[in-house]
Amino acid sequence: MTDLAAAPSRPRGLGFLAVLLVVGAAGCALPVIVESPLFLTLMTQAAINAVLATGVGFLLRQNGTVSFGHAAFFGLAAYATALLIKFGLPAELAILLAVALPAIFALALGVVIVRITGVAFSMLTLAVAQAFHELFLKWRELANGDDGMAIAFPARVFGVDIAVFQQPTSMFLVCWLALVGVILGLWLLARSRFGTLTLAIRENEERARYIGYRTVLPRAIVYAISAAVCALGGLLFALYNGFVSPGTLHWSLSGEALIMAIIGGPRLVWGPALGGVIFFFIKNAAGDFTDHWPAVIGVTLILVTVLMPRGVGGVLVWLGRRLGGRRGE
């Protein structure tokens, strides 16, 4: 029975890995095919947005909870990089801690707030993020307030010239490979025993408790993993821009990340990443024509929600299965 049940998922798993490999290779070939620095700059920023959206979407997929505060982890990673280097730590150690510290904080916070569900959970995450935003906005002696702060990277980081991380051609490859690695890691985690357990808790937490599973810690771990992914996005942002400001902690960035996840399809591990790329290019294209680009994003979100409840990614999966079925006929 177990073998028969597992058999259909194996080809789909191999198919996903094959598609991910092709997408990864296509992204790596993009700087060779496209020579426009502007386009590569946009693609680099889109990839960073996609990492952030993937973290938010993973929390929504595995825990079924909506966060309005994941910009906190994105911004904390960027600020941690800047401040730890400023205080004299080696850049390599600062970069590692920039991802680890927000994840550890999220785990400790998650143990408390994942006990709360629904709108109350979303409001708590918003409150935490805005508290950090106000801290870095008002504490000028620490981080230069609203003016932001430049990050004093050394000439070489991990033996690589810092210019590699601040040029669109090379940084796009770094961000793209990071995004593909995150998607692969989260996909494997979602298919693991732990991933199955968290989905079961999401569907019916009371029943999971009844059959003997502890539910708070797994939900907190998912929260911490999603925070670590967002922190990775913040680190990439800091490496590429060499500058950080309180805007990286603002609730509006959390809202944008949630919109990206919904547009792409949060039921799929890779859906939010697709939504992040789509969102970024719609935002920039609309911004060239009107100052009211948020209205364009709002209309897009409404259309996706009404016409494509599973997001653009869900439509692509449906089309793929339809085409596969026709080929097999």
Secondary-structure topology with pairs:
Blueprint: H1 2-6, H2 9-33, H3 37-63, H4 71-86, H5 91-113, H6 118-138, H7 140-143, E1 149-150, E2 156-157, E3 160-161, H8 168-191, H9 193-203, H10 205-210, H11 216-241, E4 243-244, H12 251-264, H13 271-287, H14 293-307, H15 311-328
Antiparallel strand pairs: 1-4, 2-3
Helix pairs in contact: 2-8, 3-8, 3-11, 3-12, 3-13, 4-5, 4-6, 4-11, 5-11, 12-13, 12-15, 13-14, 13-15
Can you offer a commentary on this structure?
The protein is mostly helical. 77% of the residues lie in helices and 2% in strands. Strands 1-4 form a two-stranded antiparallel ribbon. Helix 3 runs parallel beside helix 8, helix 4 crosses helix 11 and helix 12 runs parallel beside helix 15. It starts with a helix and ends with a helix. The N terminus is likely disordered.
For the biggest β-sheet, the strand order reads 1-4
Alpha carbon gap, first and last residue: 27 Å
Q: Portion of residues in helices?
A: over 70%
In terms of structural class, how would the helical and strand content be classed?
mainly alpha
Beta-sheet strand percentage?
A: under 5%
Largest sheet: 2 strands, antiparallel
What is the typical, i.e. mean, pLDDT?
88
What kind of oligomer do you see?
single chain
**What is the count of β-strands?**
4
Low-confidence stretches: 1-8
What features would you highlight for this structure?
329 residues; disordered N terminus; 77% helix; two-stranded antiparallel ribbon; mainly alpha; 15 helices; single chain
Q: What's the gist of this structure?
A:
The chain has 329 residues and is mostly helical. Helix content is 77%, strand content 2%. A hairpin with a 2-residue loop joins strand 2 and strand 3 (160-161).
